[in-house]
Amino acid sequence: MQSPSPFARIGTRGSPLALAQAKLVRSLLAKAHGLAEETIEIEVFSTGGDRSQAENTTLSAIGGKGVFTKEIDEALLAGRIDIGVHSSKDVATAMPPGMVLAAFLDREDVRDAFISVSVKGIDNLPEGARFGTSSIRRAAQALRLRPDLRIVPFRGNVHTRLQKLLDGVADATLLALAGLNRLDEAHRATAILDPDDFMPAPAQGAIALAIRTGDQRLAEIVAPLDHAPTHSAIAAERAMLAVLDGSCRTPVGALSGLSGTMLTLKGEILSLDGQTSFRAEAQGSDPQVLGETVGKDLIAQAGEDFLRRWSH
Ligand SMILES: NCc1[nH]cc(CCC(=O)O)c1CC(=O)O
Which residues fall within 8 angstroms of residue 50, CB to CB, at 6 or more apart? Predict the structure, then answer.
């Protein structure tokens, strides 16, 4: 006897955070369509980003584009799954042709959390303290405030990084509050950082649903989960990042949101040591145009040389 074909098949990475996000999507989809959760399958994929946990590499160095999505993208395009569930900030701005980010869940908290077992905030760290992060954005933003900090590479999933702190590998780290919230680990945060000092990564805190371009059935299935303000904000932040993408070794922060009916976008780029930074801000109604405007403003301020300097 043939088993009934599932209503939809979700593809996800296997980290606890990715699984929590996939289960949230399954639950929301089941509710939206009045179905039992068992009618929606979850298939787990190991991506290059999961396999390459070498401590001395930053993500941009291990290949950047699609390192957390490639295997899921391929399964989606081949029709083995119907929906790729991703952390939006891990999705490359240049996606493979044939797929589209069709829906974004209501955004979680966008801010970064400061976590330490010894001190309350970044200002309280002793001179020369070890700051664990493999994110060039977080390193640059931390060094801007505290040039004395020593950056130590810090990879692995959220629980691995929390354990490394307990093991004394570093004195402090930063993690996205969104991920901590989804894993019920927000109590680990010793401070929540002001997004003006620590502008989040473009698209941080938003879950994206990828489907095949032109798949009308799936477009209708995921539509009820789409949160329009989040969709616009992520579109603007990703459009800004796309303008800057030639220089994938430049630390970039972005934050967009609605003020009234208008979309506001703030963007920032920094030198790796955090000692030089540029900011731009604009308002608009078209996310794509807004993102391009802010991205081009940043390039005009910084100069092509600034971007090229870090682009290897
Ligand atoms: N691959 C790292 C990653 N991708 C998405 C999140 C957090 C969740 C989110 O931004 O939605 C994290 C962990 C972190 O930065 O702390």
Answer: 13, 14, 15, 68
Instruction: Tell me: ipTM over 0.90.
Output: yes
Q: What is the pLDDT of residues 235-289, one digit of tens each?
A: 999 999 999 986 668 999 999 999 888 999 999 999 999 999 999 999 999 999 9
Extract the tokens encoding 132: 């664990």
CATH topology of domain 228-312: Double Stranded RNA Binding Domain (3.30.160)
Please report the atom of ligand 1 found closest to the CA of residue 49: 1
Q: Is any atom of ligand 1 closer than 6 Å to the C-beta of 90?
A: yes
Which residue from 248, 245, 259, 88 is spatially nearest to 179, judged by alpha carbons? 88
Domain boundaries, the chain: 1-105+206-226, 112-192, 228-312
The catalytically annotated residue of 73, 82, 90, 109 is 90
**Residue 239: both structure tokens together:** 């459009």
> Fold identical between 1-105+206-226 and 112-192?
yes
Out of 15, 87, 134, 135, give the residue to mutate to test ligand 1, the one with the largest number of ligand atoms within 8 Å of its CB: 87
Q: Is position 90 annotated as part of the catalytic site?
A: yes
CATH architecture of 1-105+206-226: 3-Layer(aba) Sandwich (3.40)
CATH 3.40.190.10 fits 112-192, yes or no: yes
**Closest among 135, 129, 244 to 200, alpha carbons compared:** 135
Whether the Cβ atoms of residue 52 and residue 84 lie closer than 8 Å to each other: no
Q: Can you tell me which atom of ligand 1 is nearest the CA of 204?
A: 10
**pTM for this prediction:** 0.94
Q: Is 205 in the pocket of ligand 1 (CB under 6 A)?
A: yes
